[in-house]
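Model: You mentioned two targets. I'll fold them one after the other.
Researcher: Yes, keep them separate.
Model: Target one:
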Amino acid sequence: MKRKTWKSVIGLSSTVLALTFGANVLFMPKGYAESVELKTSREANIPLFDQVPESTALFPETLLKWSPKSDPDAPFNVSTVPLAARVQGKKMNANQSTEAKVLSIAIVNRHTKGTPSQGGTDKAVYNFTNWQYVDTLVAWAGSSGEGIIVPPSGDVTDSAHRNGVPVVGTVFFPPEAYGGKAEWVTQFVQKDQKGAFPMADKLLEMSAAYGFDGWFINQETNVDSQTATAMKEFMSYLQTRKPKNQQIIWYDSMLPNGQVNWQGALNDKNQGYFQEGKKRVSDKMFIDFRWQELTSSREKAVQLKRDPYDLFAGIDVQANGVNSRRKPSSILGENGQPLVSLGLYCPDWTLRDGGQYDIERYWENEKLLWINPQGDPRAVESPKNEWQGVSRYYVEKTPVTSLPFVTNFNVGNGDAVYQSGAKVKEGTFNNRSIQDVLPTYRWVIDNEEGNKLEAAISHEDAFNGGSSIKLSGEMTAEQQTFVKLYASQLKASASDTATVVTKGADEASLVLELKGKEQPLIIQGQQQALVNGWVQTTYSLKPAACQTVTSVGLNVKKNESGSATIYLGQLKLGKEKATPVSAINNLVFSGKTVVDDLTESIRMTWDTKGKNTASYRIYREINGQLQFEGETANHSYTVLNQERMGGDAIYRVIPVDYYGREEQHKGVSAVYTFEALKRPEIAVNASSTLIPVGETINLSATVSKSTETVNWEVIGATPQTASGKEVTFSFSEPGVYTVKATAANASGETVVIKENYLHVYEPNVGIKIENLSTLPTTTATQGSGYTNDQESYRFALDGDIKTKWCDNANDKPWMIADLGAVKTISGFELFHAGAGGESPEWNTRDYDISVSSDGKNWLTVVQHRGNTSNSSKDAIGLVEARYAKLSLEKAEQNGKTARIYDWQIIGVNQTGIVKP
């Protein structure tokens, strides 16, 4: 762990700030916190970290050194949600298979590296909810620059497990064209002196520590036959040592000779990585997209005495989604059933390429990809030459198999957080760890005459969490609409009850389908008004006692005709019983990240056995009230962007049982101490440092958040003094001027003096300020490297933001510009990834610029930290130099690939302006 300097703290602030919840916070009612006396501890010497906890991404060498005991981020990447049991629902159309399976290989996080372990404020995340159609999720990730061994983030595993879906991490050996190295594969399959595979043991250690379910091995780097043989032995080693609940999935890529040659089939060449005699090598195989027919693969699996549905025919939907050439119908046999199982590569298209991170488009795309254009799994109208939706051929599964079952229809993101119908935290968020089980059927709705209700996920209102189910459309008085929600396999007792929380419905009756019964059981309930228009209806399950409930739905009515909006906020099945939760002990602040001098993100962990506990809510106590800060299923959490209100803050962690009830007396409190407030930091920049007499110049100060005043003094300027973070001066006389800036806060003042910073000249002296990078004499032949000849250094100096310098092979890329002769330099402008039309998340974050006259002795003139902009300007005091060196200390916001579309070196094509 590394302590931060204030310079690096300020540089990091904009990145970490993007992870926090919104700042506008509502408080729990005062009575919520009273009569609870908890033991409160205080901790000093809290370790400082550069960033909030991040998901793990490693290379073979770093995997070997990894340990959950030594990795400070490890506790925050753990999933504590057990894998739920689940069963198949009743077939919704005749085409659905009850045998074939679905493998989703999804890019669940935007980046391989730099993913916050437990969510943040970005609402537009891949919070997948159609788990009813997925049998295994591969959390796809990996890159040569960020890491090739990538376990799933704990929040994804939590949501998948709650829905009964196992999750596996990725081992990705890239093709050489994408930075793959044969030495990585060799290191990975290396044996020790005892004949063991240390890397395999580490994979098992990580999956056990983090709570996920195995690994997807994607080997696309050309190696020799010896390494290829070792890889097969490696997988067999994993098979004999992995727990029964874990699985190893192999990608049809490498052959026994070590060459990558995708077969698009299970055949004699690659079968050894699937099955060898009686020995299972991999549990599943993902057949590459190049397949032409699947009958031979099915026959080969049968010949090997393996289930053909352990083979997954790949359909690549990354670029085109539902417009992809291959369709779910493409893998059907003559009998209309899948020949093998379905493997979808990058169904996250729904959010990324197909949705462009627009949430409304995401939900529409999810409907098209997983269900069908009708949004009804019963529909079979789509022809085979169109995308039919996964629901057409794969039966729904459900984890609703035991009581209690509680859902708030919370998808794990939203515009605000609600508790019991009241808004407790403003601002967009994502937290997949607390995603509920969403309806099995999207949607099965039967409207009586005159009703036209349609259903959608809504963030407009919620009962608990950030979302609800919205039913909207025309309704006729006293005509009901049936909404089938969940497939189930439940047995209720005579004393069991159910509750439904709705808003906008005049009547809601419970509809249960029972095994062996042709007609559903309809139960009327008793209504009770709650806050903000929410109504709770309670039902007795006595009529269903000792019978198996196979589905759960609702009938809703309105008393008057017209346009209707009805929200479903909660469904609770099972009588609330006394279920004592485990007490929480030993709340420890295990680390902090200083966002700015008024704001810190705080890591905390606690001890508990977790009995009967669904989640933990974290509060900050302010003036006797509890302010909600977050919720997790884990035993570690990071509260983001906590504002200083004095030197100390009291935090409380409260366990929540499976009925959603808080057990405050089982919680724990601790006092957190903020970093001592220091004098402010200040950095000064100018719009230009070389101007003619009579023109104005803008000076700006980047200061600590605690700064109360910024005062300027430029002797000889008009005016000579000014106040504010941005000020303007002009000059009536030529000369060299010094800038003094003073920042003040409650702890004192910080003064910055930039001697001889501004050069003012007479307009008629012939000075021409231009971009020296595009002069014929300027070249670039030195640097860390580039991906190919079309992305070499020279393209950073051509003045064209359609071309770029790109280097993805070095941790800290650098390049040198040779101006051909000594010239006068006054500043620089950099155009990053966003300026070229790429993601702003690839913009250079931290960089240095140095200059030299001889190419040997360098003077650093720019240290820019925390950039997020598509372009950045840095003015410097005039300097004479021939060479300029750009060093990318952090080439992206999270990764290390250089993407510089243009580097303008601003100055004058002459010397002598700088006076001795």
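Model: Target two:
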Amino acid sequence: MRRTALLVSAALLTGLLPLASASAAAGADEPAPVPVDRFEGEVPFAGQPADGIFTWGSDSDDPPRLALTARTDAPEGDKVLTGSYDISGYGGFTHDFAAALPAHDWSAHKGIRFWWEGRGSGKKISFEIKDGGAHGEASELWTTSFADDFTGWKQIEIPFTDFTYRTDYQPVGGIDQVLGLTQMWGYAVTLPVGVKGEFAMDGVELYGKADQSLRASVTTDAAVHPVKEGGTADVRVSVATTGSAPIDEPVTVAYESTGGTADPDKDYTPVRGTITFPAGTVSGTSRTIHVRTLKDRSAEPAETIPLKLTVTGAKAPAESPQVVVDAHGLPYLDPKLPVRKRVADLVSRMSLEEKAGQMTQAERGAVTAQGDIAAYDLGSLLSGGGSTPTPNTPAAWAKMIDGFQLRTQATRFQIPLIYGVDAVHGHNNLVGSTIMPHNIGIGATRDPELAERTGAVTASEVRATGIPWDFAPCLCVTRDERWGRSYESFGEDPALVQSMETVIQGFQGRANGSDLDRDDKVLATAKHFVGDGGTEYGSSTTGTYKTDQGVTKVTRQQLEAVHLAPFGTAVDRGVGTVMPSYSSLDILGDGQGAVKMHARADMINGVLKGRMGFDGFVISDWNAIDQLPGDYASHVRTSVNAGLDMMMVPYSYKDFTATLIDEAKAGRISGKRIDDAVSRILTQKFRLGLFEHPYADTGGAADIGSAQHRAVARQAAAESQVLLKNDGGLLPLKKSQKVYVAGSNADDIGNQTGGWTITWQGSSGKITDGTTILDGMRRAGGDVTYSKDASAPTAGYDVGVVVVGETPYAEGVGDVGNGNDLELTAADKAAVDKVCAAMKCVVLTVSGRPQLIGDRLAETDALVASWLPGTEGDGVADVLYGKRSFTGQLPVTWPKSESQLPINVGDTAYDPQFPYGWGLTTLTKVPAGGSATLRALALVATAADRAGSAAAGRPAVTKARLLVQQRIGTTITPATAKPFADADHLLLTGHYASAVAKLKEAYEAAG
């Protein structure tokens, strides 16, 4: 039984009898209309995952007001859907079918129709249908519109052939970009903007019979068929039908080789003929066209042989296939030549248009006509956050990217694409991948070797899906925890960030780039150059953002010491690409004021490429050049001349390439600058081995999410846990204890992994595979009872564990003041209060930044900063139950109040809740001996300084730190906090004796 039929109740069938009779009179084979919405109350006002109608808009005022209204003039039934609207941005309403039930099959019908009460406004009203995907909010959108140029009721009929694919829809982007009609999830109406209005709608239904040209289609096995010179290309032509029924009328396909850049009878033997699929042919039947190429023994670029297909009786392919004779004999194709010679040869052959294409990166969902990859010679594609294939599996990723890569073979020089993703804590767009702790947690580990291993696991999983480029790591130095991106930073101390840059070697391998062609390495991206972690609160001009994309005001010395230092380290480590920041930089005293980083030639050309000697390429951030002042030509001209080599222009790749070409022809961008940009890009493509191996090597796909990879993530989660308080040695827990677990983040993998997980913003709930903290505690063998809101009785337990904190966010959406703060939710506070009043308690904060918990600190026996630990809750359980010791240290200062922000190590006035570097330990004996022991450790540290021995110096400082922490206890004062924090900075910079001296100062201040 078709899913659409399930909507039709017995009463509804009775009401439709007249329609069915009318249909029968019109033609015995014409199907009866199938209702989608009658608006009699059979479909509720509700949203996903339920079946229902709901409104939406760009802000709180934009969603329309809806009602089911009884009308005597209702075209169908007794009620109609009515609404009023006054929309400034965008707004409308949707009917999504129930996500828990199968999608609907609309393929037997010609189109969709509905009654609309016209107001004669002349405005266009968009009507969309939802095809494919997991449910109505994760589907393709196919759109058309009608004009409200009439008055009174009118039935609007829209054949399915009128709908076009909507390219700008995120987060899903494209699925297969084919209106299949067999998996439909509903419809949506977008109402006019800028006018107050009312509307009425009734009787949405499917009508008519789909003719064979809609149900049957002719396809080819590929749009591009590369073949070596002298070989034969086999082009398979198939006929297919919706629902796989045999065709009921003959289908003919006339074919002819015509046009292209190859010469008939010289480069290939011309072909012409007709293929006939008789009536009754089974769906999926194929025939093959053979195109034989000829050898002429000269070195040549690739040459194309289009096959013109003329189809009768079915829908023709969206584009005709073409055979491509591979480029051959040219120096740039010789892998034995040095990369610089290959690059120079290739650049010397390229046209301005081809060079402009290499400098262009588009979002994969925007390339609805995949022939644009060759037509515009695109150099790169990316998946934005949440832009994934369906199904979201490793095989689907590889197939999708290979399909894009195939298109490049139809260009003269067959330059492969470089595909990029934001894999910022594992291959985080891919369901089932290994999700690492976010960088803030990696910084807490103080373990450079482990950071490198997390990068290696990420690189392996990313490359196994056909992706050679990762927009990571973020080398921002976070200076204000109100920033929504603060969890993307390793910490507030540039020395800590620099120490964690071992992750670059995890991604890329050796600094000289010689490992980049391995099947487990990817090109890394140092971002965001420079100063994005220092933006002032309230300085952002992007929408409702407060801090993100704002202005960083610094002296030249502060810029060099804090924000630039990590990028110098990244260049030394051979990082392949650098991404500038959305933010502006205001260097005090330089006379320029605040200038967007994408326009700062002094920093990109001057400092990064000049002084630091960066030899990779610079990629813009998402649509970032659109934030520059002036018109679009100015955006392009300014950014390219500032030193950007490739532009991430997700949906405007055509405008960008055209403008870049115009600016170059006018002399406003020099040929030398363009050649430099293209050379840098091609250098990395050659290093990655893409010319020899453009397609996915999926040999490592079996390791994605493997036990071995998850073991690394588990260790990282464990080492990232920072024990801030542990009165009476409550931790580690004992398996014999009865433990009461509560809190919003105890059993939520989505909250635990945070933003940039499966989608850009992330989301709560079971969004991917992994173990929650609660799962981990149970698997550790603990005697655990769980009550999320602490509503279950609390008597009879030895200890409580309350896991609280944040829900996911990303970028400026998470800025404090933009709907977010640093306070626990009311529900989390209530859970803490109830559990901690009833028993000894441990509070874990799962969050991207410190939470303000000072007012509950006294009632909390133990406090753990869990950060965003990723998919491996087992790692958190490992330290809770003593399988591993707590070793993490604060990567940022933990404030007492929001009014203290920004607060950072090195500040003159420094009075935190917990200082930078703080982190208690378990299972480790704290040194005894007090001042005498500190004096002895100072001697060891001094000797280590002289010998330059980290192996001796670091343990000495660590022992001193543990001793001093025990002395300070829970009474942290400015006199103890400041030298304590300074000591950790000195340790990271290799000043061991000075670090111990600062710790001695803190010890003495503790009294």
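Researcher: Noted. Anything on target two?
Model: The CA atoms of residues 103 and 183 lie 5 Å apart.
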